[in-house]
């Protein structure tokens, strides 16, 4: 399996209570369960990232439940209000139970 | 090679038969009531009305494998996206919180064919609003 690599774009600094745009991308095939193996004709089992969550200093910010209709390498963009300096934590949950995570610090001035 | 009238007729009949088989072999796409059920489950039984909710999507998507889509509903608690023409209608549900700067999200989705996208937003007071947008798809994106 290709290595799953999460990437996020978060501003390093923001003014207090500024609303910032956060872009996230994770490399993942998002196998829908609808495709068939062209050689054997057997259905390829579903394997997708079904949940994405972002939190700031432990407080939930944004969450998404995803179904097989989300494209491969799921891209999510959302807005966040920055109340103070802190750490944004991103978590992606796979169908097989593994969790891919990443943390970024935003300095509020 | 010369094609006789008999052979030509045979080919034509064979072609029609093959087309018919293909049509019936196509996967059963989500029925209308599956979409209604999904909306009812999401809103908790209330029928969504009109309101301040928008979907931004291309009118024509050349590649159904990755269609950029943006949804916003100011003040919403969560937004559900449905693709009415996909094998399973659910696409994604976004949940917002007090730290969300705006109740909007962008993502990329798969569309199997030309179809309507439905967005339903659940408001904090329990009411729901909905909108839909049609997207034409040139090449479908659900593999096969």
Automatic annotation (TrEMBL), chain A:
Extract the NCBIfam families matched here.
Answer: SoxZ_true
- So which residues are the signal peptide here? none
Q: Name one Pfam family in it.
A: SoxZ
What is this protein identified as? Thiosulfate oxidation carrier complex protein SoxZ
Tell me what organism the protein belongs to: Pseudovibrio japonicus
The Sulphur oxidation protein SoxZ domain is annotated at: 9-101
């Amino acid at each position: 399996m290709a290595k799953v690599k999460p990437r996020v774009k978060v501003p390093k600094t923001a003014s207090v209570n500024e609303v910032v745009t956060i872009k996230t991308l994770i490399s993942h095939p998002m196998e829908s369960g609808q495709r068939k193996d062209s050689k054997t004709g057997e259905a390829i089992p579903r394997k997708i990232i079904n949940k994405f969550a972002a939190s700031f200093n432990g407080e939930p910010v944004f969450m998404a439940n995803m179904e097989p209709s989300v494209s491969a390498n799921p891209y999510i963009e959302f807005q966040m209000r920055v109340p103070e300096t802190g750490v944004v934590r991103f978590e992606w949950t796979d169908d097989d139970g593994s969790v891919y995570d990443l943390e970024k610090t935003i300095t509020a001035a | 090679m010369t094609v006789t009238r008999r052979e030509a007729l045979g080919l034509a009949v064979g072609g029609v038969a093959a087309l018919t088989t293909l049509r019936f072999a196509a996967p059963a796409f989500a029925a209308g009531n599956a979409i209604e059920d999904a909306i009812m489950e999401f809103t908790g039984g209330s029928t969504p009305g009109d309101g301040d909710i928008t979907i931004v999507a291309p009118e024509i998507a050349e590649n159904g494998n990755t269609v950029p889509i943006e949804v916003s509903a100011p003040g919403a608690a969560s937004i559900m996206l449905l693709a009415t023409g996909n094998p399973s209608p659910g696409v994604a549900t976004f949940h917002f919180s007090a730290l969300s700067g705006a109740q909007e999200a962008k993502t990329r989705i798969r569309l199997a064919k030309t179809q309507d996208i439905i967005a339903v937003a659940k408001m904090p007071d329990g009411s729901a609003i909905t909108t839909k947008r049609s997207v034409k798809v040139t090449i479908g994106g659900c593999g096969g």
